[in-house]
Amino acid sequence: MTTTTTTETPVLTATGVTMRFGGLTAVRAVDLSVHPHEIVGLIGPNGAGKTTFFNCLTGLYVPTSGKVAYKNTTLPPKPHLVAKAGIARTFQNIRLFANMTVLENVLVGHHTRTKEGLFAALLRGPAFHRAEKASTQRAQELLEFTGLTPKADHLARNLPYGEQRKLEIARALAGDPGLLLLDEPTAGMNPQETRATQQLVFAIRDQGTAVLVIEHDMRFIFNLCDRVAVLVQGEKLTEGTTDAVQADERVIAAYLGTPFEGAPGADEIAEVEAAEAAETAGAAENAETATPPDTVARPEDNQ
Ligand SMILES: Nc1ncnc2c1ncn2[C@@H]1O[C@H](COP(=O)(O)OP(=O)(O)OP(=O)(O)O)[C@@H](O)[C@H]1O
């Protein structure tokens, strides 16, 4: 975990963000800052307004009132301008281009950073080719970073669920954001995938992108975050270190239920380590009984 350097200009400053849908106030006067090198969690019960708040931050919704700034510059509520400024996001429901390859999906994400305009693209001159080469190189780096290089040419729709989530993250990183918003990145993942996602988020932070993450998996949140903000019925109930939030009676009453006992994540770590040990033992056993590589199995061998 890093220590927050509060003197640095925040990558996100949301001030008094309110979002009303008719008579329903989904988000009410929420203030939140995220600093460079921070991982901040946003938690709260179903319907608390977390995704609505993300949508206000990224320009998908125009807040009823309040403002959102990136590095002290107020953002217009337009998704492409927010992305261009330096805020990227993933969605609760995966939104990939299913019939494009893994590499192509990341290349699409890089276009917010490409300066070449329509004419350069139409003329296909040297500047266009240089930009295209740089985009491909960056996309390949991101596939390496997220462990998806072997799947570069696969169609996105053919990836297993956990890898589709990774690809969403790779695509979001392709715009070289200063802040990445993750909406339930481990939803539907098994403990091993969740742990891999945790390591990936740490690596993203270490590379210089701050992270704001919505998640219902509290062990994931408390293992990962430097700070946590709690939304309840659209309002920010509290905000603080993971220890302070876990111990807050109001958070326990409104959301957590019972406080954690022992180190958060200990059960998951034990479960993942047992699964990894079983996998290693299985692999060793298979290696002993495997057909030598230069031997072609005859059909009658399989009967
Ligand atoms: N486009 C919309 N129109 C009307 N009401 C909406 C809209 N989007 C969200 N809401 C309402 O706003 C409230 C907050 O919803 P939101 O999805 O932001 O909560 P959440 O904290 O993200 O929930 P969850 O954890 O279940 O994803 C809910 O009552 C929801 O029904």
From TrEMBL:
SMART domains given in the database record: AAA
Presence of keyword Zinc-finger: no
Record domain ABC transporter: where: 12-258
Gene3D superfamilies given in the database record: P-loop containing nucleotide triphosphate hydrolases
Start-end of Low complexity biased regions: 277-291
InterPro entries named among the record's database cross-references: AAA+_ATPase, ABC_AA/LPS_Transport, ABC_transporter-like_ATP-bd, BCA_ABC_TP_C, P-loop_NTPase
One Pfam short name: BCA_ABC_TP_C
GO MF, one example: ATP binding
Stretches for region Disordered: 275-303
Keywords of this entry: ATP-binding, Nucleotide-binding, Transport
Protein's name according to its UniProt entry: Branched-chain amino acid ABC transporter ATP-binding protein
Organism: Streptomyces varsoviensis
